[in-house]
Design goal:
Elements lengths: L7 E2 L5 H10 L5 H12 L13 H10 E2 L5 E6 L5 E6 L5 E8 L4 E4 L3 E3 L8 H5 L1 E4 L2 H16 L24 E4 L9 H12 L11 E5 L3 H10 L3 E5 L5 H7 L8 H12 L7 E7 L7 H13 L2 E7 L13 H13 L3 E4 L30 H7 L5
Parallel strand pairs: 1-2, 6-9, 9-10, 10-11, 11-12, 12-13, 13-14
Antiparallel strand pairs: 3-4, 4-5, 5-6, 7-8
The protein binds S-adenosyl-L-homocysteine (SAH) and iron/sulfur cluster (SF4).
Length: 387
């Protein structure tokens, strides 16, 4: 190659960014939309196959652009059909992506960071520390890889797209995306929003805003920005109904306490595609699963239109925490329901391959020495009933 600049990976550019890039190469904006359809809808990574682009433009692309997604270093299939991929993201770091098939949908759980800085003591990713943010190409590359790999499998379940009337949008395998893999998406804001825009774009994946969910541990200022920039469905990792307990379970609570978070949820609801916020609540035996916690959650439900999603705690090697027993989870859910709050209990999927919530732990070269900053686990275990 004679060019001195390295090729631009156009997989991670949203429509506006790609149009600007294509203009810089001296081409009209519609070329960007054509390129997006080739890449994202047809899964094509070879410019020479993009037959409706002018030959000169194709040659230019071969010289100056690249379409590079991550390649998996490992694939594991669960008995329940869940698939987990491990992707090597360099310097001995790896991230994980999980596909969860159901009768009427295919959900992809995507990572946003190699590790996480928040350090929730019940989360495997949190225990590993943090190495770096993923780029937009690495985030959307997980969807690109999963959709086009699964589409090539003859027995893959296909789901009609919401925009099935458009010839360019074939039936898809991934119908829903949840940003619930490794990392805190709102602490990698720009890259995550670029990837979200591609998920929603009619010339890329064309998912409706209701089918794309960002899960956050509560980065309040970024919840407000997301409402303006790309208001997809929002899930908030609540896990505790009061500040004292939440400070210990979700350390970010010390910076953005509960009331601030609930106010941000209400502001978000003015823009959200659904008329409720999903509050995720991991069920930890003897810690946050007592009747008084359910009562406090009902007070929260009076303040914010919400649904509670109770997540049975998934253990991981080295953890001392335990999941609440099924009877406790059932009566906790019943208390919430009886109090008028819509409540579901999440089905655990893929736990035989450590692909369930909070078990994701691709290798991370920690740059944060998180264990030195994580004394909370002891306190949680010593004072389980205090909250
Ligand atoms: N960082 C974001 C998104 C990733 S975690 C967040 O915290 O929201 C996705 C969900 O899995 C969160 O609700 C998280 O709290 C939950 N989770 C983490 N560890 C878990 C575990 N060991 N068992 C069950 N759920 C867990
Ligand atoms: Fe990070 Fe979410 Fe895990 Fe907390 S639960 S450590 S915010 S990935």
């Amino acid at each position: 190659m004679t060019s001195t600049t390295s090729p631009i990976n156009i997989l991670g550019l949203d429509r506006q960014q790609l149009e600007a890039q294509v203009a810089e190469w001296g081409n009209r904006p519609f070329r960007a939309r054509q390129l997006m359809r080739w890449m994202h809808q047809r899964g094509e990574a070879d410019f020479s196959q993009m037959t409706d682009l002018a030959r000169v433009f194709r040659e230019q692309l071969v010289e100056q652009a690249a379409i590079e997604a991550l390649t998996p270093s490992q694939e594991q299939g669960s008995e329940d059909g869940t698939i987990k991929w491990l992707f090597d993201v360099g310097n001995n770091n790896s991230i994980e992506t999980v596909f969860i098939p159901e009768d009427d949908r295919g959900t992809l759980c995507i990572s946003s960071q190699a590790g996480c800085t928040v350090g929730c003591p019940f989360c495997s990713t949190g225990h590993q520390g943090f190495n770096r943010n993923l780029s937009a190409a690495e985030i959307i590359g997980q969807l690109w890889f999963a959709e086009h790999t699964l589409r090539r499998q003859p027995d893959a379940t296909r789901v009609h797209s919401d925009r099935g009337d458009k010839a360019d949008t074939p039936d898809r395998v991934v119908s829903n995306v949840v940003m619930m893999g490794m990392g805190e998406p709102l602490l990698n804001y720009d890259a995550v929003v670029t990837a979200l825009k591609l998920m929603l774009d009619d010339h890329a994946y064309g998912l409706s805003r209701r089918r794309v969910t960002v899960s956050t541990s509560g980065v309040v200022p970024m919840i407000d920005r997301l409402a303006r920039d790309c208001p997809v469905a929002l899930a908030v990792s609540l896990h505790a109904p009061n500040d004292e307990l939440r400070d210990r379970l979700v350390p970010l609570n010390k910076k953005h306490p509960l009331q601030e978070l609930l106010d941000a949820c209400n502001r978000y609801l003015e823009h959200a595609p659904r008329d409720f916020i999903t509050f995720e609540y991991v069920m930890l035996a003897g810690i946050n699963d007592q009747p008084e916690h359910a009562e406090q959650l009902l007070d929260i439900a009076k303040q914010v239109r919400c649904k509670f999603n109770l997540i049975p705690y998934n253990p991981f090697p080295g953890t001392q925490l335990r999941c609440s027993d099924p009877k406790t989870i059932k009566s906790f859910a019943q208390r919430l329901t009886d109090g008028g709050a819509v409540t579901t209990v999440r089905k655990t999927r893929g736990d035989d391959i450590a692909a369930a919530c909070g078990q994701l732990a691709g290798d991370i070269q920690d740059r944060t020495r998180i264990h030195e900053r994580m004394p909370k686990l002891k306190k949680i275990l010593i004072h389980p009933q205090r909250a």
